[in-house]
Structure formats: structure tokens, C-alpha cells
Amino acid sequence: MWCGVSAALWPVRCRSFLLQCRNICSGNVGRKSVVDGVLPSFRSVCGEDGVSLSEAIREQHGKDESVHKCCPPDVVVFPRSVDEVSALAKICHMHCLPIIPFGTGTGLEGGVGAMKGGVCFSLRNMDQVLDLHVEDFDVTVEPGVTRKALNSYLRDTGLWFPVDPGADASLCGMAATSASGTNAVRYGTMRENIMNLEVVLADGTIINTAGKGRRPRYDWPDETSQSRKENAGYNLTNLFVGSEGTLGIITKTTLRLYGIPEAVVSAVCSFPSVQAAVDSTVQILQSGVPIARIEFLDDVMIDACNRFSSLSYPVTPTLFLEFHGSERSLEEQVNTSEEITQCNGGSDFQWAKDEETRSRLWKARHDAWYAALALRPGCKAYATDVCVPLSMLPQIIVETKEDLIANKLTGPIAGHVGDGNFHCLMVLDPNDPDELQRVHLFTERLARRALAMSGTCTGEHGVGLGKRALLVEEMGAQAIQVMQSLKETLDPKNLMNPGKVLQ
């Protein structure tokens, strides 16, 4: 079986083509010569300026924000419409050329590296906001539209899109990785906020996962409900959300929007221990407080943020909290939360109501990556990403901190404590092989520690290149076999972002 088909099923006149596919896919024929041969076809689709062989451009599109080495594609194409994406995909499919979708390159698991060369589809020129329906709370966007660009576009409508992974990522890229972020505890992840997707499959076929133009309405007894009034067929939308470019290229996504809160209040609270901070989080959620954000920083991380952002918070485990709602509801939320945190030893409360103070507080949280890097100038950073049940969070954080100390590693901890997701921001010298090995072994121990506690090896970064083996351990052989079957059905030639997610 080569390229997903049996040679016995092909007529004799097609076997030469099959042999070509076999040789290309196995690396027996120089891929460069194949790419050179199809360049005129690419240019006929997206123009002379829409195709680049520049080494600098190819390297730019061969790496994301992870520690994985750059694997540049053979060529980068810049389609301007879904029809051009489809036409280019058909060319690649005919010549067995791998396809790697590229949004903004802000991923953290090596998801854009061209492991087998091929063609990078850079989607930045498809940057239109389409079909905004203010009264229905939804909007459709192309893959070049980023989170910040969408919210800027929505500024005067009274609506916003709250999923916030920190980076100004492409919204279709966020769909592809099922991104999350600081607001997930109230508004959910990308998976809960996508109503429909337009996807180009490996052979160029264009599909709409909920039907062309469909915008299934939501049943909203309150603004946090995730119930959707749609029950037609298989849930294809969620099949492609989180598929990381291995099943198709997402060229449009229809998103759920929310009303901008009438009032917002933020707070910072220090705790004597990790346990006290997590206990407060659990009790706040159990009390029914619809908290919008609740972020945890350990003592090392808060110290780094103090230094980097010129703050003066106590160097102890700390929670950053934010509440959204009406003026009256916020007063009740704040009072309940403050009472709970005080019962758990929380102190040094600093409430922020004005936008300037709140922005400074959350900027410090979003700058945690740069604050961690500043601990060791000249080094690189790598963000781990695991998620466990809330009840297990204190244990895994304590064990992880002990592991860091024992192995002399720098890894301040920050996390979306409201949903059990946290990160060690590993700061390392990439030129030190011994430290690289210690970091690699630490991240594997951390992931397996999470799995042993009924958690997951990735809460929001995705599997990409680095966590394929861990995915097998997490899901089990039978589930992986089903995934492989789905992959082979949709992409029998294994052209879509090969080498990612599945081994």
C-alpha cells in the first residue's frame, strides 16, 4: 500500500504515476526536482508574487516559537482565497507533495516544521472578517485574521471574542490547535466557541463542517451556557478543531461572540502555600462565582514578574483574578471571593477597577514569558503544558518544583488554575547538551506525572512534533488506531502536515 491505494486496483496505464508517488513519498526521487516542475502551476494559481523560494522566507515558515529546530519547506505559497487554496492542494495531491498550513507561527510544539519538505501554505493574505451578525452573536473570519485584529474590528459593536492564548495568533490557527488561554474558565476554549469551519482537504475538496453558511443557534439561558441547538450528523467541526493541520486546511471559521462586560474588576492575592491558593480556586468555583480569569504564579514566577515589570508583589504563591458582569453582580462576586481567600490565608489583596491598573496587571501576566527569559539573559525558553484535575494540582506543582530543584533547572510556574492547566517556563542554554538532556527528561517526567494523575500531556499547546509518543500513552493503542483510520480516510497519501500528532 503506497499513498493510500493498492497497486492492484490501478489500471496498467496509471501504474507509472503510482510508482512516481511511491518514490516521492519514500524519498527515492529528488523532491526538489518535483517542486521545480510544479512551480509554473503554482504561479498560474496565485501569481508570481504568491510563490517564494527565498531561503529567508522558507526558514521563517519552517519554525514556530518552540525549541524544535527549523525545518523549512521547499517552497512557500501565499493563496488569496479558498479557491486558490483548493487549486494549490490539487496540484500538491497530484504530485504527492506534503502540505503544511501556516498562520502566524506562534505555536509551541513544532507544528509548522516541514519534516518531509513540501509546500507551506502561508495564509496571511486571507485576512477578511466576513459575515458579522451582531444580533446573532457570531462572525466568520478567514485564516489571516488574528485575535487582536478581530477584537479591534468589533470594538464599536459591543461584542468581543474572549479566547486569549496570549500570543496574537491566527483565529483559524487557534482552531487548528484548539487553543485556550486565561479566559477559558468562564468562556471555554476554541472547541466550545466554533460553530462551523470551511476546510480544504488534501485532494483540494472544500467542505463546510456544519453545512455551507450554517450558523447553528445557541440556547442561552445565561451568557455562559455552551448548549448548541444542532444535532445533525457527525460532529465534523470538532473533528477538525485540534487536528493541527493533519486532516485539512481551515480556511474559514465561524465563531461565537460575547457581549462586552458592563464592568470588570481584577485582583491579586498572595497565599502561604500552593495548597491554599488552589483550595481558594476550588471553593470560588464551587460557590458558583462566574469568575472570568483565575491565574496562578508560583514564587519564582512572581519574583520574575516583579523584576521584569517593576512590581512589588510578595514573593509567594499568587493568584491573579478577574470578574466580569454588572456593577451589582461584581460586588457580590468580589465579596464572596475575598471571604473565601481570607479563610485560606490569602493576604495583600490589591483590587483594580480602572482600566489602566487592570491592563498593567494583566500585561505583567502576559509578559511572564519575557520575565522568565530575563532570569537568564541570552538563554532560550520552552513552555511545558499539562493539565490535571483541580484536586491533583497542589500535588503535581509541589512534585514538579522538587524535580526542578533536584535537577538544577530554571522553570518558573504559571497556569490557568481554574481548569487545572499549568506551564513550567523552562529557561535553558541551547548550547549546553547536558542541560538540554535534563530539560528533555524533566518534561517527559512532568507529562507522565500528569497522566498518572488522570490528566493530559497537553492542555492547550497541542501534540505537534514533540508529544506524539505521549499521545499514544494517553489515548491507548485502540484509540490511536481509530485516529489513524480517520487520517488515512481523509488523507490517504499522508500529505497533510506529515510527521505531526500521529507517528
TrEMBL record:
Q: Name one Pfam family in it.
A: FAD_binding_4
Q: Is Oxidoreductase there in the keyword field?
A: yes
Q: Which GO terms describe its molecular function?
A: D-lactate dehydrogenase (cytochrome) activity; D-lactate dehydrogenase (NAD+) activity; FAD binding
> Where is it localised?
Mitochondrion
Looking up Gene3D superfamilies in the UniProt record yields: 3.30.465.10, 3.30.70.2740, Vanillyl-alcohol Oxidase, Chain A, domain 4
Q: Which GO terms describe its cellular component?
A: mitochondrion
Q: Which reaction does it catalyse?
A: (R)-lactate + 2 Fe(III)-[cytochrome c] = 2 Fe(II)-[cytochrome c] + pyruvate + 2 H(+)
GO biological-process terms attached to the record: lactate catabolic process
Matching entries from InterPro entries are given as: FAD-bd_oxidored_4_C, FAD-bd_PCMH, FAD-bd_PCMH-like_sf, FAD-bd_PCMH_sub2, FAD-linked_Oxase-like_C, Oxid_FAD_bind_N, Vanillyl_alc_oxidase_C-sub2
Recorded superkingdom: Eukaryota
**PANTHER family reported for this sequence:** D-LACTATE DEHYDROGENASE (PTHR11748), D-LACTATE DEHYDROGENASE, MITOCHONDRIAL-RELATED (PTHR11748:SF111)
Give the protein name, as stated in the record: Probable D-lactate dehydrogenase, mitochondrial
Q: Give the encoding gene's name.
A: ldhd
